[in-house]
Specification:
The protein starts with 11 loop residues before the first helix and ends with a strand. Strands 15-16-17-18-23 form a 5-stranded mixed beta sheet. A hairpin with a 2-residue loop joins strand 15 and strand 16. The protein is 17% helix and 33% strand.
Length: 514
């Protein structure tokens, strides 16, 4: 009689390897088939870590040197910390220099611009509580290559390329003509040259070895640009430069191969059209269009003249217009797969949310309407896959109500854009004392939670802004910290921490979450 092969007869290490190819629901079903498999799966730390990653929508970081036991412990601590909204420790980081209006948070580093705009400073955010054996916290400094240049913005691709892209402006007017004016006012009226410098982040910092050199643009006659966007994924750099103070000057969107210094294509638009850009994937770029109140999805191939898909926002009441619309999604897609070895896992790029910040013009001394809305990155890509014909356009009612969540942000601090990580977003009410609020769009968390915002068919019916219903039915779980705070001016979020800001005497207060 032939021997009947049984799955459980396989060696344990081979059985674990086979099960790693199964999704969490299939693993759960296998646990219910026999006592042996139930005990086997529960005893396998590899399978428990895999299921925990799927529940939290994070991806493992193979560059991490931590053992699996430590990784699953940190992931469990992180999820528990966010669920309870109680920090396990708090550290304060002084800022011992005068700052400019430049900042960023990415790759476990927090960045600020120096006053005078000739250098950037960054600090490696701690992952351990005070009193441990971790190295002392210190600010690193990266200076512009020229003492005559002023840094106007910067973009980061730390995990993928160890790269900071620094946009500088060098006045070409005689220096004596500008000495009597404050720095920003002087730059606003001076003709000058915009240049992009590609610099390594890790010490010793210097010109990036993969970049052919800096990229210099034709001289500007309208002073320093007052709107700059820099995003880098793979070999592609998106650089948006605009002059809202010069209303006749069009916006320019440049798509470069930054390593070769080669311009792939260029897009021009009406002044004050683009204030943001998000890579949905390595080859799809989303541009929120303020002028037309749309989201434009572009394929990043040469010769593009129009978006492949246009998503309309809710129709505005005649005479109403959007003043500003920014967007952010963290983390960015990656081509190389290089990861920061300090983190054992990272939020899933595909499942992360995109947050949009929309403001409307208002007369002086009148409250400015501000709204946030959220949508998953994966959902936007699914819309593109379902409408691949170039030039397609969808009205909001046909794509948005079930997959978007809108929030009136008039009572929230909206000065900081670094508020999302993965499927979470953090917010701080303006009125003090205030609790930190975390919006969690993880569908598994939402399903298990009790405090879920109800679906709304038209939450802004009486605002006099939109001419159609603003459906807002994307499920979201809202959590608030038990402690209330009086002295914070803003708050940010990354994969491991909540970072709170006190701007009066600038320092960072870090709440540990994993």
């Amino acid at each position: 009689m032939d021997h009947c092969f049984r799955l459980v007869d396989l060696p344990p290490e081979l059985l674990v390897h086979i099960f790693t190819f199964l999704p969490k629901d299939a693993i759960h079903c296998c646990r219910q088939t026999s006592r042996y498999l139930c005990e086997f799966i529960e005893s396998s730390i590899e399978l428990r870590y895999q299921v925990a990653r799927e529940l939290a929508y994070v991806t493992d970081n193979p560059a991490s040197i931590l053992p699996i036991s430590e990784r699953i412990a940190r992931l469990s601590a992180r999820e528990s910390g966010f669920s309870n909204m109680t920090p396990s420790w708090v550290r304060t980081i002084p800022v011992p220099f005068r700052t400019a209006g430049l900042y960023e948070l990415s790759g476990g580093l927090f960045w600020l611009g120096e006053s005078g705009r000739q250098a950037l400073r960054y600090v490696v955010l701690p992952t351990e509580p005070p009193g441990t054996s971790s190295p002392p916290i210190q600010w690193e400094r990266i200076a512009s290559s020229s003492s005559q240049s002023r840094i106007i913005d910067f973009g980061l691709a730390i995990d993928e390329h160890d790269l900071v892209v620094i946009a500088t402006f060098t006045p070409t007017a005689p220096v004596k003509q500008l000495e009597a004016l404050p720095l920003i006012q002087a730059l606003a009226v001076s003709p000058g040259v915009v240049k992009l410098e590609f610099v390594t982040v890790s010490s010793p910092s210097g010109p990036h070895p993969q970049a052919k050199g800096s990229i210099e643009f034709p001289p500007s006659h309208w002073g320093i640009p007052s709107a700059i966007i820099l995003e880098c994924v793979g070999d592609i750099l998106v650089f948006i430069v605009a002059y809202p103070r010069a209303p006749l000057v069009p916006d320019h969107v440049y798509i470069y191969n930054w390593k070769a210094g080669m311009l792939l294509w260029e897009l021009t638009a009406e002044n004050s059209t683009y204030f943001g850009a998000v890579f949905l994937s390595t080859d799809v770029l989303m541009l929120p269009n303020t002028t037309t109140a749309t989201l434009e999805l572009w394929l990043l191939t040469a010769g593009q003249t129009a978006p492949v898909l246009t998503l309309h926002l809710p129709r505005l009441v005649p005479g109403t217009r959007i003043a500003n619309m920014t967007a952010r999604g963290e983390p960015n897609p990656s081509v190389s797969g290089r990861k920061n070895p300090r983190m054992p896992f990272h939020s899933s790029v595909e499942d992360s949310i995109i947050v949009f910040n929309i403001t409307f013009p208002a007369p002086p001394n009148v409250f400015t309407p501000v709204f946030l809305f959220f949508v998953h990155r994966r959902t936007l890509l699914s819309l593109l896959a379902a409408h691949p014909t170039p030039g397609d356009a969808l009205n909001y009612a046909d794509w948005g109500p079930d997959i978007c969540r809108w929030i009136n942000a008039g009572g929230l601090v909206t000065d900081w854009i670094t508020t999302t990580s993965g499927q979470r977003c953090i917010a701080l009410p303006v009125r003090e004392p205030a609790s930190f609020l975390v919006l969690d769009f993880n569908p598994l968390t939402v399903h298990a939670a009790s405090s879920v915002l109800p679906a709304e068919d038209d939450p802004f019916e009486d605002y006099g802004i939109w001419a159609e219903a603003v459906g807002s039915r994307l499920p979201v779980h809202v959590m608030s910290s038990r402690q209330q705070y009086n002295s914070y001016n803003g708050v940010s979020l990354d994969d491991a921490r909540i970072i709170a800001f006190k701007v009066r005497f600038f320092f960072l207060s870090l709440s540990r979450r994993c």
